Write a sequence for this structure.
């Protein structure tokens, strides 16, 4: 990780110029290309590997306080099949690397290793992955980039109660059924994490799994997970459920987790988080979004939020969002503040 | 005899819907391919044939009539839903099927590549190709 910091009044103009230039140039560039170009990456010669990534820029204006522009994510990933049975994936990301607020700017690079794994595809029923991967809990965590999600903010239920990345082993597979597939994931970690800072909840010991049924127009999943928090030494046993249903213009989805938290001193409590989200496609490019979420920590802090927003996808791989969010209460993660705010973002998947 | 065969062929051709598709491979994979299987093949959810060989699905271009029929009749997803699906798969490290320009190219690819599977209109079918499934135009 390399870190540098710059403060001054010259950068906000440059940031605004860069933002406007990006906003103007990327859709224009995409417009001259086939719709399949953005969001498909580029081939790395004849290696069989592809390079992809995404960029997200957020704007936030709380009801009290200055607006903040954040160059939130610049992610690059390389992936491909080395042989018919061996697949590799590597992703690095620089998050929140440039913030501009109240006439001041801050540059702070966080070069994070998000994913690094090799996967052996024994069959459709047995695939073994080793390395650092996204924890298979819910749906949002495994597909979290801004250009692929419906709201600017990420619901707490998708990350705040479990380690979002694990460094260990994952076995997964699909059992083919005519009325929808049944998929399983079994995972374990019993070693230090690779680049632990990518997790709000860091762990070196975890075990769990998820059972998922999915068909053409929806899916339901049930995860279970036990882990020990590396920093607090809390032992957490978590279970949950997620559901997705989409038909024609409507997409409804939700996730819930509930965890039993036992501290190193033996005190026990429970925590939960859930969200429900509805998306209505006005056209193939314009969407209305509504979301409700709630969380309670093991220390009985409660938090809830309502979000209403619009999303425009001018081209596949590009997204422009504008959300209004009401938040009340407290939960021990950075995003769970109080007060109303307006959020906007620009995202591009490439 | 010859007359009755010709009449039967003519009658069959007249009754067969013109837009029907056929799912084709080079050789029999040794398993029953249902509509659900076809979905899993072309969304890359099913990666291996029963004999352990890797499946290589091939698509036609997005604006090709046969592809639109296939997406509607088998995948049951519109173009927006498929773009969203493949964008998510891209983030997970999975590429969409190879796209070939024409049905002739699909047939040539299927003949040459072990495990390849494609779809073409039924009236473009050649006798050396194995038909896994007939897809009626909706």
């Amino acid at each position: 990780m390399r870190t540098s910091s710059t403060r001054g009044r010259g950068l906000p103009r440059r940031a605004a110029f860069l933002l406007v230039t990006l906003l103007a140039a990327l859709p224009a560039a995409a417009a001259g290309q086939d719709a399949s170009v953005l969001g498909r990456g580029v081939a790395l010669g004849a290696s069989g590997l592809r390079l992809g990534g995404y960029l997200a820029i957020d704007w936030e204006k709380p009801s009290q306080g200055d607006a903040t522009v954040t160059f939130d994510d610049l992610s690059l990933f390389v992936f491909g099949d080395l042989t018919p049975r061996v697949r590799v994936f590597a992703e690095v990301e620089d998050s929140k690397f440039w913030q501009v607020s109240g006439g001041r700017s801050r540059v702070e690079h966080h070069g994070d290793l998000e994913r690094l794994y090799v996967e052996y595809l024994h069959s459709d029923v047995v695939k073994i992955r080793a390395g650092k991967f996204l924890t298979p809990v819910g749906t949002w965590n495994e597909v979290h980039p801004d250009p692929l999600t419906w709201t600017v903010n990420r619901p707490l239920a998708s990350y705040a109660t479990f380690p979002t990345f694990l460094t260990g082993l994952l076995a997964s597979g699909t059992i083919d059924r005519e009325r929808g597939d049944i998929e399983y994931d079994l995972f374990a970690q019993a070693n230090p994490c690779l680049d632990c800072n990518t997790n709000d909840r860091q762990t070196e010991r975890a075990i769990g799994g998820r059972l998922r049924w999915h068909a053409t127009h929806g899916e339901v999943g049930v995860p279970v997970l036990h882990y020990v928090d590396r920093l607090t030494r809390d032992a957490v046993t978590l279970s949950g459920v997620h559901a997705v249903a989409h038909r024609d213009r409507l997409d409804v989805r939700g996730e819930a987790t509930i965890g039993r938290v036992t501290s190193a001193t033996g005190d026990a409590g429970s925590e939960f988080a859930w969200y429900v989200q509805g998306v209505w496609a006005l056209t193939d490019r314009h969407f209305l979004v509504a979301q409700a979420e709630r969380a309670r920590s093991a220390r009985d802090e409660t938090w809830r939020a309502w979000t209403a927003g619009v999303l425009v996808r001018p081209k596949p791989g590009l997204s422009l969002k504008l959300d209004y969010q009401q938040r009340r209460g407290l939960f021990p993660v950075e995003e769970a503040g109080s007060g109303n705010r307006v959020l906007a973002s620009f995202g591009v998947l490439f | 005899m010859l007359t009755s065969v010709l009449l039967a062929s003519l009658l069959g051709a007249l009754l067969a819907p013109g837009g029907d598709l056929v799912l084709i491979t080079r050789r029999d994979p040794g398993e029953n391919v249902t509509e659900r299987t076809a979905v899993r093949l072309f969304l890359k959810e099913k990666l291996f044939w029963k004999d352990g060989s890797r499946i290589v699905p091939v698509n036609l271009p997005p604006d090709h009539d046969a592809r639109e029929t296939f997406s509607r009749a088998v995948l049951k997803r519109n173009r927006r839903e498929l773009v969203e699906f493949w964008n998510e798969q891209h983030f997970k490290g999975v590429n969409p099927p190879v796209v070939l320009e024409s049905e002739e190219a699909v047939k040539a690819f299927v003949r040459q590549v072990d495990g390849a599977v494609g779809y073409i209109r039924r009236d473009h079918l050649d006798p050396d190709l194995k038909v896994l499934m007939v897809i009626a135009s909706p």
Summary: The domain at 10-349 of chain A is CATH 2.40.160.10 (Porin). The first strand of chain A starts at residue 42 and ends at 43. Chain A has one domain: 10-349.
